[in-house]
Amino acid sequence: MILSSRLRVSKIGRSGKLVGLGCLGLLTLHWASPTLAAEEGPDKNGITSPSIATSLPYNGDPFGTRAWLAGLGLTYNFIYTHDILANLQGGLRQGAVDQGKLEYNMTFDFEKLTGWHGLSFYTNIFFTHNTGRFRRDFVGGVNTIAAIEANSTIRLSELWLDQRFWNDKASLRVGQLAADVEFFFSALSSPFLQTDWPTITALNLPSGGPAYPLSTPGVRLKVDPTPDVSMLLAVFNGDPAGPRPPEDEQVRNRYGLNFRLRDPPFIITETQLRANHGKDDAGLARALKLGAWTHVGQFADQRFANDGTLLADPSGSGQPLMHRGNFGVYAVFEQQLYRPKGGAADSGISLFGRISASPSDRNPIDFYVDGGIVFSGMVPGRPDDKFGASAIFTRYSNAARAFDREQIASTGLPGVVRDFEANLEINYMYQIIPGWTLQPVLTYVWHPSGKAACSPETSRNATVIGLRSMWQY
């Protein structure tokens, strides 16, 4: 995952707050993308590439503080992502949103200071701000349009200890974790704004599951028996925000400090197979990830009531039949189609995709697929630019659609049978200097929230344009 954080500054008055937050962060924690740091790692100056620091005098560290801290094992990053998005037609209403996310992460390697091999500490915090929730308030859909979208707040995300063992082929991580950092993710999808925890888990799990912007206590075991094989297993507290009310889970866990421990657990496992991902490999890179998850809590039936009647039947109890447990299966694939001579595993032309299914009776979404194509370094004279297209298809479950039909029949009122929501995104990532990129984006959304344009009150296909700016330090 190149960068899971997105930040934005929209007004001068807010800039001061961001500067103040950054200064506070330097004195306490450090936050950024743990996956990026783990894969590329900081240099001796504590800089993780790409970074605007490499274009600044003295690497942006005139007093040598960052390099000194790196020598003690403490490294940090700041990432700011800023989006301007406008809904030109369709959806719930037309308009624009200014949103941003400032993320700060810190990693401390205990070995450099204490000699304790393999033990590290990580934490990240982010500050999100916006002038509206774009997907929710303007488009009215369920698929991600810009993954940084979140309520305006300062929020603790991850906070964990990680111990490597078995000759560094295995690690155990304990603390507050986010599943979307390591599970059900394709690194090739990172350039797209709609890259996110898939809709099928975000809608089917309590409070959306342990994924941005929420995290929750958990334990993760990772084993790498060979350089091309990884096996992961994690157990999380099953509800990062807790039960309703209020309806919005981000309000129920406003600052990331709930630290819930007693909810029925969410368990996820994934096996990852890779080939030609080494820096000296010349063959086409490819990867396959196979995963499954289960949640042992209770889940409401989408169609039937607890007295055997239909939920849509006005003479019934209106209380859903409850099912014990839920589950899903998924696969992620990545395939490089063209690799320039001397290019990395993500250079040239690559395809990626994710597919998943869950039971229809207890889930609003029973099938999900996304994918895309990425062109990296294909523009002459622009080796670090990327462009491409990605698509998402989310299908409402058979039970949810049956409920819609039965509700229309029982009330005699006009209604909509939810079918699917689909997104198409096209964007270009233009690097100004290392660590600073601009991305114009065009997104089209079919059937927001599964609703076709059959009446004036119904959500309609939406056309979205936008511009993302991202800075990494």
Describe this structure in words.
With 473 residues, this protein is mainly beta. The model is unreliable at 1-39 (pLDDT under 50). The chain has one domain: Beta Barrel (Porin), CATH 2.40.160.180. The longest helix has 16 residues, at 12-27. 14% of the residues lie in helices and 43% in strands. Strands 1-2-3-4-5-6-7-8-9-10-11-12-13-14-15-16 form a 16-stranded antiparallel barrel.
β-strand percent reads 35-45%
Count of DSSP helices?
8
Instruction: Give the helices and strands as they follow along the chain.
Output: HHHEEHEHEEHEEHEEEEEEHEEE
CATH superfamily: Carbohydrate-selective porin OprB
The CATH topology corresponds to Porin
Helix proportion range: 10-25%
What is the CA-based Rg, rounded?
23 Å
Which CATH-level-2 architecture? Beta Barrel
**Low-confidence parts lasting 5 or more residues at pLDDT below 50?**
1-39
Return the domain count.
Answer: 1
Strand order within the widest sheet?
A: 1-2-3-4-5-6-7-8-9-10-11-12-13-14-15-16
Shape: globular
